[in-house]
Design a protein that fits this description.
Arc Repressor Mutant, subunit A; homodimer; globular; 2 domains; DNA-binding
Chain lengths: 252, 252
DNA sequence: ATGCTGCCGACTGTCGACAATCGTCAGAGT
DNA sequence: ACTCTGACGATTGTCGACAGTCGGCAGCAT
């Protein structure tokens, strides 16, 4: 029925040439569509809190600013709407999504769903998977530690989420990764929007270390409880920000 | 918050006209964009297995078939790509996503993550939430039962997924709903693609009844185990279809 | 002063057209 | 016979333009 193209398993043609000469350093040069680049740019701005909730993003204006036509801009905006970072009002354009307290609880509850399951599956996966996950998480914790040293709020929260993303990725289920990336973007947007003072670095490191230890030891119940607590605490700090005075408020 | 129309209290001249005439029955007439309608149409076709995996969906062709321009078609296709029902190859258009065995395992594993968490949260929610969920699930089971009577494969699988969607929805977390809707669409596409004979109706009903009972009784561990088994069995039947002979194969 | 009606500007939704990119295939060269 | 090169056809990525829709405001009637 279907004609197999019979092309020799693409890419093996010039490989040897590339291999001997130093050409292998050629990185697959930026092959992204305009809309993807716009989408990533805007996504980053939203995540970092540079755009205020409710702010209008008119296609025309963005297109003019970037000196492109409206088509790719429109495409980029639509992507972000599907990621729930923008909200769309019919015939009235898109605006930056505002997050209410209940949104934050939803986000963290959903994160809990995915992280818990991922953790559970990693433990099920046996010692090999567990070891690999532990290594990756320790590396992520190191990145978090160095971000803490720099003291940049945004880098810290990004590194924090990166730790959790690493946990989910270690389960090896791309569907979970996709779902989690949407949630982590929303969570980051929430965190960076209300400029909460980060907790003492040690506390953050220790708490993540707890997760690593529980995972390494294969203590399922301990791990699941730790994840749940970790996220619950984080969400409650985000939703109860009025105490902007002393209490070491801590996002996650 | 919401403006009550203030009709009543003697104002019987002007407002009463609206009140007495049947205008209140005017339902907010179909206000969907072209791209949304196209998207839903295609989504349904993919879910029902009318489009073969790998089949090319050229923008031009679809636009001509529907007698619209390429813009809304393109938008619709992009939506479906984000839902993982279509795959996009750069400059070569989109085609219907094929699902491998590992995809199926991923989908069912991810479903397990969300359903389990939803079930857990429903139990946490107390007797009120639990009762409402039980009612909704019983209604969903009834719908499944009537679909079984009709014997239409697609209606049965749709009703089956509807049951699980109801379970997730009962947790009251829209983020979980969104994530689950993507997974359920993929699962349905998998099921309807390989035309597997449905299991005996009684078996299907009983198994879902088990879930309802465990939920109503608040037996968390039983419920979680049941969900896990339920999905594991379903996935294994989908990924081991070669026995198209006798064994009552059963998708889910 | 209050409420309704019709215009106005701004923006999106949609359209047709052009240009860039990719896979294919014939053909030259070895 | 095999490999590489170049052109071809098809399809997407992008563009500028037009029409439809929405919120806001002025103007009129009450």
């Amino acid at each position: 029925m279907r004609r197999q193209p019979t092309f020799g398993a693409g890419g093996d043609r010039g490989e040897s040439i590339v291999a001997v000469s130093g050409l292998s350093k050629l990185k697959t040069l930026e092959r992204k569509s305009t809309s993807d680049r716009i989408s990533e740019e805007l996504r980053q701005m939203i995540i970092e809190g540079q755009l205020r909730p409710g702010e209008q993003l008119a296609e025309t204006r963005i297109a003019e600013l970037l000196d492109v036509s409206r088509a790719p801009v429109r495409e980029a905006l639509q992507q972000l709407v599907q990621q729930k970072l923008l909200v769309s009002a019919r015939n009235r354009g898109v605006s930056v999504a505002p997050f209410t307290a209940s949104d934050i609880w939803e986000i963290y509850d959903a994160r809990c769903a995915i992280e818990s399951h991922a953790a559970s599956r990693i433990i099920d996966g046996g010692p090999g998977v567990r070891a690999r996950a532990t290594d990756a998480l320790q590396a992520a914790r190191d990145r978090l530690r160095s971000a803490l040293k720099q003291g940049d709020h945004r880098k810290i929260s990004a590194a924090d989420l990166d730790f959790h993303t690493t946990l989910v990725a270690s389960a090896g289920n791309s569907r979970l990764d996709d779902a989690y990336s949407i949630l982590s973007a929303q969570a980051l947007a929430c965190i960076n929007r209300l400029e909460i003072a980060m907790p003492s670095g040690d506390e953050l490191i220790d708490e993540h270390g707890l997760l690593i230890d529980a995972l390494a030891a294969g203590e399922r119940e301990v791990l699941l409880t730790a994840i749940n607590d970790h996220l619950t605490v984080a969400a409650s700090h985000l939703t109860a920000p009025p105490s902007s005075n002393g209490g070491p408020s801590r996002p996650r």
